[in-house]
Amino acid sequence: MAILGSGVQDGLLLKPVTYQWAMDLYDQAVANTWFPNEIQLGEDLADFKKMTEDEKHALLHLISYFNPNELLVNKALAFGVYPYINAPEGHLYLAKQMWEEANHCMTFEYILETFPIDRDKAYSAHVDVPSMAAKEEFESKFIKRMTEDTLDISTTEGKKDFIRNLIAYNIILEGIWFYSGFMVALSFRQRNLLRNFGSLMDWIIRDESLHLQFGINLILTVLEENEDLQDEEFAEEIRGMILHAVEMEEAYNRDMFPRGILGLNADYVNQYVKYLTDRRLEELGFEPEFNVANPAKWMAAANDTLQLVNFFEQQNTSYEVNAQATKTS
């Protein structure tokens, strides 16, 4: 059985599992299940009140982007991925991922409800801020190709569109743009601010790391199973998509930090974006483009969510529903 296909009656028997990596990721995702109100976010209100206007602007910028784009990812999954794969273990994982994206959306709603943030301003920013709107339009055009046109997954061009959509939402949106925002979000905790907000971000990052693993495995599996996709011109197109995304992220980060805040400015974040991009390129089999050092080496420790303990509650924030599940960092 190939992983690509659109037969409604195909892929209805789970065992024997064909793609064990998808089954393993599903098991881990289930073990990682969490709910936002398990974190006492109200404890961070004192920190928020003493933050500078530039710090509050950066936080609003992040929330304004994350909130609608968690739902945009769900559309990319529901319309651009789920209908075009046959493997039931893949469907199981995608169903859990879609629930996680909904949970992340509710997490950002919880943040908007807790902090005195202008909800209307936060909701409208993804349309009103040009750099944010440009990123959303980039993503939307790939999703629209999957939803508004007839995609024939049996053709080379149809399979290429499937890969393009995966690159756009998984590698670029989740693997670069989201991770850039995660670093900014966790930078507050580096200065002993918004620690519970940081714990929520840890849980989101843990989910997103599995989303990224699934997407990369899916891309590489489709390429391996379809020799007609293995051409240099298509590879260069994909590389070009990723590098164009860096330019958009640089503009977005300049809007987030018009003046910079303590320990962080647009140049710092954009170096991290270039570092992330090189890692994603390498994971897809490309040579790195920027060859820059990681300016935020502390992120590796910050993401060790299996060991984190909630600062206020002294409860382990990395519990797993099933303690026997294999731990995946």
Automatic annotation (TrEMBL):
Keywords, ordered alphabetically: Deoxyribonucleotide synthesis, Iron, Membrane, Metal-binding, Oxidoreductase, Transmembrane, Transmembrane helix
Membrane spanning stretches: 166-188
Cited InterPro entries: Ferritin-like_SF, RNR-like, RNR_small, RNR_small_fam
Cofactor(s) the protein needs: Fe cation
GO molecular function: metal ion binding; ribonucleoside-diphosphate reductase activity, thioredoxin disulfide as acceptor
Assembly: Tetramer of two alpha and two beta subunits.
Protein name: Ribonucleoside-diphosphate reductase subunit beta
Organism: Demequina lignilytica
